[in-house]
Amino acid sequence: MLIVLGSAMIAVFMYLILAKRLAPTLALVLVPLTFALVATGTGLSAPGEDGVVDSISSAFKDFAPTAVLLFFAIIFFGTMIDVGLFDPLIRFVLRTVNNDPVRLVVLTAVLAGVVSLDGDGSTTFIITVSALLPIYLRLGLSPVVLTVVANLANGVLNILPWGGPTIRAATVLNVAPSELFNPMVPGMVAGIATVLLLAWQLGRSERRRLLASGRTLSVVADEMVAVREPALVGGGTGTDGTHGTDRPASGSAGGSSDTDDADDAALEGTLDPNRPTLRPKLIWFNLGLTVALLVLLGMDVLPLSLVFVAAAAIALVVNFPKPEDQLRAVTSHATSIVGVVSMVFAAAVLVGVLSGTGMVTAMANGIVSAVPPSVGSWFAVITGVLSMPLTFFLTNDAFYFGILPILTEAAGHYGIAPVEMARASIIGQPVHMTSPLVPALLLLVSLAKVNLADHHRRVIWRAAVCSLVMLGVALLLGVVPLG
Fold first, then answer.
1. Confidence bin at 137 (pLDDT 50/70/90)
2. Buried (b) or exposed (e) across 355-384, using 16+ Cβ within 10 A?
3. For the segment 189-226, what is each residue's pLDDT rounded down to a tens digit?
4. pLDDT tens across 27-62, in order?
5. What does the pLDDT look like over 61-74, one tens digit per residue?
6. 249 HSE (CA, 13 A, CB side)
7. What is the average pLDDT across 346-350?
8. Nearest Cα to Cα of residue 224 among 111, 137, 132
9. Residue 262 pLDDT class (50, 70, 90 cuts)
């Protein structure tokens, strides 16, 4: 019965999200709580001690540091945009892409991939969106394309040993990380190539859409000259306190003169090279502070939330000495902060219900028992395929520490080594990184002002393609056994 409830809960949740019947935050809360009431009301799980209530409370505590991290990460990098730290980078990117959507989208994949080498999704998305979103808006490209490509690149590179999933799999199955990861490098390279191909396809699609709307590249270039090139950079707050990337979530461009006029007005106001938040004399200080922050993130010597809290406080005090300016700088990013932090705690409800009701364990045992002995030798392949949906609906901790040991024990009866199961288990990471349970994903769509449903409709199947390519290469090379 728990298997049926769990499957129904996931189906209802996804329908409400993709059909836009409910806001993601509300769906993450109301759907799990409804099914939790059914589970407790029918006696399938305990509501109190060691049950649903305690599991949700525990999930809140577990997610709190992540919420703090994202809260102050938005403030810090938002402040860096406001004061003009990324302006030179944006000018360089504009010259490099030469107003070509295809070049810009492929460059997005490259930038997200390079930054993903540090193993932190939140940092990747903050830097990528901060640097490229103003350019997407100026060229009239959909911000959804930006979020999709960045999400895919980060998902493929999330299998790096220091990224998290690989260490989890190696730890729980007691295998060497190098023995697990090194044979998977060719598959990861193939996955990156797939991301670049998908980015090229998306760029061509955007170029065709712009041409069909009559907003040709020459028209865009003329507009850019008219607005003055320096006005195309940055993304700070205007004098009215609104954020430079505030625009409709659809991100559609062209076709409507009203929309174009609104975009131009936004560029003149919030991307103004003379905006009062610019601090050109402090650019080297801000650059040094940002580099120090990224170094500390990579060293992992302090809690990430503490690093961002301190960095944000220092940035605000140095760049805005007056208390009223500090308050204005924080509240200018309130929309992004409320959106992402609320979804983080809402996701904790879903995680708590899945574990507290016993749905996770029941579904895992159901999967194992559903595999007939005749295909038992395919258990590694089955695990690679299942890692996609399972890590989408579960946290990495729940999958690697709760479900992978069960699958590995069953696979052992068919002669499949733990290290082979570990390799298969990390193949679903491109899909996992598109999950609403991943805080970094919530940060990505919040910073880009993109609707989660719009993002999911375009990213999930492409992430599955990347995972299947990685699985195919692993099978061809024999690092994951086939039968």
1. confident
2. bbbbbbbbbbbebbeebeeeebbbbbbbbb
3. 999 999 999 999 999 999 888 888 766 555 555 554 44
4. 989 999 999 999 888 887 766 556 788 889 988 988
5. 888 887 888 788 88
6. 15
7. 87
8. 137
9. very low
Residue where the block lists tokens 């260490």: 167
Amino acid at 441: L
Q: Is 273 exposed, middle or buried (0-12, 13-18, 19+ CB in 10 A)?
A: middle
CA distance readout (Å), 114 to 155, 192, 304, 474: 12, 11, 20, 23
Please tell me the distance from the alpha carbon of residue 105 to that of residue 132, in angstroms, as a whole number.
Answer: 10
pTM equals: 0.73
Instruction: Give the pair of three-digit tokens for residue 277.
Output: 């938040």
Total count of residues recorded for the chain = 483
Widest Cα–Cα separation across the chain: 72
In the chain, DSSP finds a helix count (H) and a strand count (E) of: 24, 0
Cα–Cα distance, 297 to 287 (Å, whole number): 15
Amino acid 408: pLDDT? 87
Work out the angle between the directed axes of helices 52-82 and 283-299 (0-180°, nearest 10): 150
Contact call for residues 425 and 400 (beta carbons, < 8 A):
yes
Query: What are the DSSP E strand ranges found in 213-367?
Result: none
DSSP, res 177: H
Q: How far is CA 290 from the centre of its chain?
A: 21
Q: Is residue 137 a contact partner of residue 143, using CB atoms and an 8 Å limit? A: yes
Query: Tokens at residue 279, please?
Result: 């601090």
Measured CA to CA, the distance from residue 67 to residue 73 in angstroms comes to 10
pLDDT for residue 3: 85
* Higher pLDDT pick, 274 / 76: 76
Helix residue ranges, H only, 83-158: 87-97, 101-115, 121-139, 143-157
Question: Quick check: 43 and 402 in contact, CB under 8 A?
Answer: no
DSSP 417-468: -HHHHHHHHTTTHHHHTTSTT-HHHHHHHHHTT--HHHHHHHHHHHHHHHHH
Radius of gyration of the chain (CA): 23
Query: Given this model, what pLDDT does residue 220 score?
Result: 57
Determine what percent of the chain is predicted with pLDDT higher than 70: 85
Quick one: DSSP state of residue 371? S
Strand partners, 243: 237
Dihedral sign (CA 177, 441, 148, 464): positive
Amino acid sitting at position 107: L
